[in-house]
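pipeline stage [seq->struct] | target=Major facilitator superfamily (MFS) profile domain-containing protein | organism=Kwoniella newhampshirensis | residues=340
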Amino acid sequence: MDRQDRKHSIAKSLNNTFDIDIEAVADIDNDNDNDNDNEVIRSPTDRSPSPTLLNVSSSRTPSVSRRFLNQLSRSIDTTSKATHAIAIYSCFLTGLTAAPSFAACYVWCGFQTGNAAQLGLAIARTWTPGADDGFQIFDRQALVSLLSFLCGATLGQIGNKVGGRRRCWLVGATMGMMTFMLGAALAAHFSGENGIATGRGDPSWVTPTGMLALALSSVTMGLQGAVGCRLGSPLGCTVPLTSTWVDIFNDPFLFALKHVRTRDVRLMGAFSLIFGACVSRCLMILMGTPGTMGVIVGFRAIQGVWWIFAPDEPRKEDQFGGEGRRGSEMSQVTCVEQKR
């Protein structure tokens, strides 16, 4: 006899003997049994967290140094308008930096096509029978500029290892350019030369210290070109703009009245270079070549700060509009339905 039958038999005997109605007692007992059966045992993980622990965990924010290091470890968004603005500003710095070297010795520290051709002419002149002028001083200056530029461009290999679009490389490379440019300003100052050539046959920066100023300026431009190559800007490496002029006047939307991003960025970069050369020449008239190079260091410091505030590269789930997240949620729903 099961439990329910025993209860009914006991209730019937008590009702007959003592005239006691225990139906209500039985109903209460049944309700208690049902409540015990439906009771859910909660695990410790179902308990609500302590408010004290929540306050402690929420108050733990990263320190300023940690947030700064995290910011430096991220990559910038090379497709944003801010990055294009930095590339245009780099063209302005190209004009600023190249003007003092050309004013001193008619050598472009950033445009090495002419220097390489001049080197070839000097070699041919040396081998010409009856030529007695040989390897002249302006040929040596062109060679120094070319080799120094290549050394600066080789420093871009560090960016290949670290990441050409990471802020730590961009800020570090900018600080390196500032250091080289400061060294060029000091060398130009202690060379004792005025830094202004009176003619093609009478260049400045002919002393070893003056040659060092030319070399450090060329290293700066080589490193800037290495940084610009990784930006993916329509301006290329932001140093030699011959190809940029070709791209501008070969653009199929050259005469379009609407906004064309690639054409407009190239045009602004080209005119920024011209404006930078004009500003540099005005500064040389006011404060001389060493002082102008010192001002260029300050302009490059602005670029270094600009890299820090450039927008971050978007994450993959942001690029695809959250499709990856929705796809994972759908796969989880499918697995739950299969289990059911």
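stage status: PASS
auto-comment: The chain has two domains: 1-30, 80-313. The chain has 14 helices and no strands.
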